[in-house]
Design goal:
Number of helices: 10
Largest sheet: 2 strands, antiparallel
Number of strands: 2
Distance between the termini: 69 Å
Length: about 260
């Protein structure tokens, strides 16, 4: 339609009409581009809102896991220090208390990363859509730090953990695990399967079995050496975890959500 009209105007040398037709075409093209841009911007805003909500939710779960990990390591650290004092004889301690602390010092906590949203955002090249700079920088820092995997790896490969289990009888270890081991608890948030050892417990094995277990641990000088190393690792990683949470603002990010 427009093309036929332009051809007609050219044949008749109707220059004003030609100019008007040209402006109509240019305006139509511009309006089309602008409509596409508006639509793309609207879609980007919608995606940004969804990504922001998902990212905040996953970072909040990360904070719950990190907090649980710090609390767990605090218990393991106290247990490790008490076990060393008891095994070395520097502090008078009954066999049951020594064994419970020695066992808990050998334990480690897992840490489930919640990063599906972040990985999707990065893979789609949409990180710039997150307009909240603090949220974006916290996510980049938290999801790229190796401290969580290092903490898990050291716990899994702990020399003390291996020596402890090689030294005591299986029946004693089973009793410790059943009565004094990890318990799951509900944080009330998004994190699931959180573990704690922060509760009183008693063993059901006989006093003789407890005494044999303590003697076996004391008989191998490598146990005390490995325990000292493990205590230092837990203490160091606790500091690193606290520094990571503070440096990347993970806790601060949600402080406004906490009711005074």
């Amino acid at each position: 339609m427009i093309l036929r009209r332009v051809i007609s105007h050219v044949k008749n040398q109707e220059w004003t009409a030609i100019a008007i037709d040209f402006l109509i075409v240019v305006f139509g093209v511009f309006a089309g581009f602008q409509a596409n841009n508006w639509n793309a911007a609207r879609q980007d805003r919608a995606r940004a809102a969804v990504y922001t909500e998902r990212l905040r939710a996953e970072l909040h779960a990360e904070l719950e896991y990190a907090t649980a990990l710090l609390e767990y390591n605090s218990v393991a650290s106290r247990a490790g220090n008490a076990a060393y004092l008891g095994l070395s004889g520097k502090v008078g301690m009954d066999d049951e208390t020594i064994l419970i602390n020695a066992y808990r010092a050998s334990q480690y906590n897992w840490y489930e990363r919640r990063r599906a949203a972040f990985d999707e955002i990065v893979a789609s090249g949409s990180l710039a859509l997150i307009s909240d700079v603090g949220l974006r920088e916290t996510a980049i820092g938290i999801y790229n730090t190796p401290i969580f995997s290092i903490t898990l790896s050291e716990g899994q490969s702990s020399r003390y953990r291996d020596l402890f289990r090689m030294s005591i009888e299986s029946s004693l270890h089973d009793d410790l695990s059943k009565n004094c081991g990890d318990k799951e608890y509900d944080s009330g948030g998004a994190a699931v399967g959180l573990l704690t050892m922060d509760y009183p417990c008693t063993l059901t094995v006989s006093p003789d079995e407890m005494a044999e277990g303590v003697l076996a641990l004391r008989s191998d000088p490598e146990v005390a050496r490995a325990l000292k190393l493990r205590n230092a690792q837990v203490s160091g990683r606790t500091y690193d975890l606290e520094a990571t949470i503070r440096t990347f603002g993970l806790k601060k990010l949600f402080e406004e959500d906490i009711t005074p």
